[in-house]
């Protein structure tokens, strides 16, 4: 028998299975089946969520097979993975859009490819340092200042020690 149920609480048994205590058919019909879910997905439901309860052919082995999601936003062909706090407020998400884009927690900023950025930055730094060296070595011959000596710049440039390594995020990888 399948039934719509309401989540009361969750806990783990000694085999590390998540047991979901639910109110099934009436105020005294409380059962505690274990949760089944697709491989690689681990999520813990909120109190008062609606769950789908199912009896199996094995006596006493009943399961929760899914939840009634009232926060569905994904369009056709999309997948959205999200987390909430205990009150159901959205905390973060990963959204795979059907146009090939992905959002990780928002859509206001872009994730940069560090390796490509570092290559371009290091070339710019090298070109800048070469220019500083040429500027510092430059002398205006035949121009005199004061006592008749060749003019040497009174200021000199300094090489760049800029480093973008701290901008590298080691915990997020991309193509």
Could you estimate the helical fraction of the residues in percent?
10-25%
Secondary-structure content class = alpha+beta
- Approximate shape: rod-shaped
Q: List the uncertain runs.
A: none
- CATH architecture title of the largest domain: Beta Barrel
Tell me the series of helices and strands, N- to C-terminal.
EEEEEEEEEHEE
CATH fold field value of the largest domain: OB fold (Dihydrolipoamide Acetyltransferase, E2P)
The side-by-side strand order for the widest beta sheet comes to 3-2-1-5-6-4
Keywords:
about 35% strand, 6-stranded mixed β-sheet, 3-stranded antiparallel β-sheet, 3 domains, OB fold (Dihydrolipoamide Acetyltransferase, E2P), 1 helix, single chain, about 180 residues, alpha+beta
Please give a quick description of this structure.
Helices cover 14% and strands 33% of the residues. The protein is built from 1 helix and 11 strands. The model has no long low-confidence stretch (mean pLDDT 85).
């Amino acid at each position: 028998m399948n039934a719509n149920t309401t989540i009361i609480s969750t806990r783990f048994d000694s085999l590390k299975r998540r047991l979901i205590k639910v109110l099934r058919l009436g105020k005294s019909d409380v059962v505690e089946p274990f949760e089944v879910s697709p491989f690689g997905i681990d999520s813990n439901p909120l109190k008062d969520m609606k769950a789908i309860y199912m009896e199996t052919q094995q006596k006493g082995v009943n399961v929760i097979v899914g939840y009634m999601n009232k926060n569905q936003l994904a369009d056709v062909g999309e997948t959205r993975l999200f987390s909430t706090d205990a009150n159901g407020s959205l905390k973060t998400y990963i959204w795979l859009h059907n146009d090939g884009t992905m959002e990780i927690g928002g859509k206001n900023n872009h994730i940069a490819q560090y390796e490509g950025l570092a290559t371009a930055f290091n070339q710019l730094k090298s070109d800048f340092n070469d220019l500083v060296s040429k500027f510092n070595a430059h002398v205006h011959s035949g121009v005199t200042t004061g006592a008749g000596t060749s003019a040497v710049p009174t200021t000199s440039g300094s090489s760049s020690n800029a480093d973008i390594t701290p901008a590298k995020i080691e915990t997020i990888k991309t193509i």
